[in-house]
Structure formats: C-alpha cells, structure tokens
C-alpha cells in the first residue's frame, strides 16, 4: 500500500511527527524524488539542531546519491544559511527543520537552484506522488554510477555575504540581547556579529532541539517574556528573538516593548530604497500595516500588495524585480539574497539604523507605527465560506467601503480596514484589523468578530 502523505506534505514544505508520520526510510525516498523532479546533477543539504535532523538529512542525501546526484552536506545551519548555499553554489537545496514546531516534529524546506522556492505548484506535488508510488513499488532503480556525498562549511561565507550588504563598522556601540530559543540563531549569530561594535548578551544559545526554556516561536508573545525582561535588566538598546531555524527575527525596543514586523518592514524598505537611489519595488502582503505602502511611496518607491505566504512573495519578487519584501510574520525578503527570506539581514539593518543615530529604538520606529492593529485573531468556524459571505453582505452596500478578494475578503474604508482569510489546514477564519486610532479599530474588530462568530 502506498503511503498517504497528505498529512505531512503541506503547501510549501514537508512537516510531521517523527517517527509516527515519517522516518528515515521515507526521507531517503524524498531525496530520490527531489533528485528526479529537479533533474539536478548536484544538490546541497543542511539541517537544524533537532535530535532527528542528522539522521533524516543523511537518509535524504543517500536517496539522492543513489540516483547519481552529488550531495554537499553543510551540516548544522539556519534555513537562510541553506538559502545562501543554494544561491552561492547555484544548486537545489534541502533544509531539515520544523522551524518553530515542538521537538517531536521535523520537516524539509526545499528549493531549486538560486534558492527558488519549491511548493505545491512548483514541484512538491510531483515529489509527493513519486514517494507515494515508491512506498508501494519499492525504491527507484539506482543510477549506474552512484553520486558522491561530501561535506562543506558555509557559515563564514554566509556571514561575510550578509556583512557585505550592511555596513555596521561605524555605528555607535550598542548593547543587544539575543534570544536564540535554543535554535539555530545560537549557531549563526556569534559568527555574523563577531568583531562589530556590539555588546551581545546571549540568551539560550545552546543548541537543543527539545527547547527546554520556551518554544522557539517569537510570534507567540509568551515566548518573548524572557527577552523583554532581560533587555530591561541589562539596560540594553534592543533585543532580537529568532525562531527555531533562525529565518525569522523579532525585535523589542529598549523598553522591552515588541516592535511590529510592519514597522521593521517600513524601516528596512527606507534603507533598501536609499541604497537603490530612491527607486525600486517593495512587496508587502495584504495584512501588513498601511504604514508600509505609505512609507514606500513617500521614499519614491513602488509598493506592490500580494497574498499572504512566502511563495506568493517570492514569485512577485521575481516577476517585478523587487528590491525587498516583508510580511507581518517577520519574514523579510531581499533581492540581494536571491529573493529569499533572511531574518538575520533584517536584524543587521535594524542595528545599522539604530547605531547610525543617537535616539532610542522606540523613537526611531515611531514614525513607522502610525495605526492601531488588532493582530491576528483566529476563530473556529464550521462554514468558512458562509461567514465570509455574511461579512460581504453586511459591508458590501456601504458607500464608504470597498471590497476585494485577493486573499480571503478585505474590507477597506478611509480610516480602517480588515481582512478575513480561511486557514488552509484547519476550520479557522483569521481576522486582521487596523484603524487610524484604537477606538475605531476596536469597533471594527468587534463588528467583524460578531459576524464571524454568529
């Protein structure tokens, strides 16, 4: 019987519980399928600090090598370090990580040469079909000449590439607390920040895929508490928090207050536009703050709005030649990083901006935080389409309101907007609302929630 991979092959990656949902035998078939679908002569493979990662990534490498593919294993790395290797070596890549998920999970993020994404519509469906077939018929026939498996260390080259994009040598001295959450930031941060005018206070830098202190998911406010406390205790200039595979970076200011990823998107957009002579396209998804397109226009750039999700951002980056893109989830994409996301490069921009002037971070980002936002609110809903239709009916005949369905339903007025999107994997509707002031945001949020939860 062919394996049913519907539970672990997601829209953008492979992710599931080990060994209950997948194991090294399946990882080996995924390696062979990746080799077959990409048609590559060589690939690069990396992994995070989870206990199951070395075994799974090694099995994947063996599966690819059996079909004649030469595999370069770069070992422990962050996801954006794997993207660096894929871009710099111009090879397809596989990163073994489950990002911020609990320890029992693991997964694979796949890309083509130059860090181009692999998702359902760009190869992942074919990979899944091959693995399902081979679990029934047996592994594919090996190539006449087996591929080699070698090792390489790309950490220093990755750090040098990032440092070449942001000049931090002349900033004023800063004290920064970094919470790696026992994830891969503990591996990359020391090398990337080495020798800079920074006093780094490390928090949970020990690589431990069981996450003994807190989940490596800074999107959950509970996982920022330790960082916020330490920033205040140390009288630090700012704090940085990375997720498990260190491709996302969250920022807290000198007071320990979280800085909105939309504000960071706007700040980095200003810097990237300045680097490009005040010209260029900046991508933002439709639930980032209105501040972002406003700032981009003010700086002479062209904002482009997209659906939520890295595949849409990366596709639009490539289509439009955008110089930068940002999402509400603290994913930041750079043309100079093969259109891939790297929280570390965004962090360097924040450090450079803060260190290049005398004021505190809270004052620096205030101009990029112009609206009141609800954050993402999830509601369990049996009839997602029916609830969205009810919202459309309730707001559609108002003269001061516009509707669009680029991603779910966005309802907009001069002073406020909200978006309602269905989850792809759960019976949830996700609400994001924003307004010119807190009372208006609260009113619009509650009006939308009343319809959603009716």
From TrEMBL:
GO biological process, one term: carbohydrate metabolic process
Molecular function as annotated in GO: intramolecular phosphotransferase activity; metal ion binding
Span of domain Alpha-D-phosphohexomutase alpha/beta/alpha: 7-136, 157-256, 264-371
Domain Alpha-D-phosphohexomutase C-terminal: 376-448
Coiled-coil regions listed: none
Keywords, sorted A to Z: Isomerase, Magnesium, Metal-binding, Phosphoprotein
Family to which the UniProt record says this protein belongs: Belongs to the phosphohexose mutase family.
The name this protein goes by in its record: Phosphomannomutase/phosphoglucomutase
Source species of the chain: Streptomyces humidus
Gene that this polypeptide is encoded by: manB
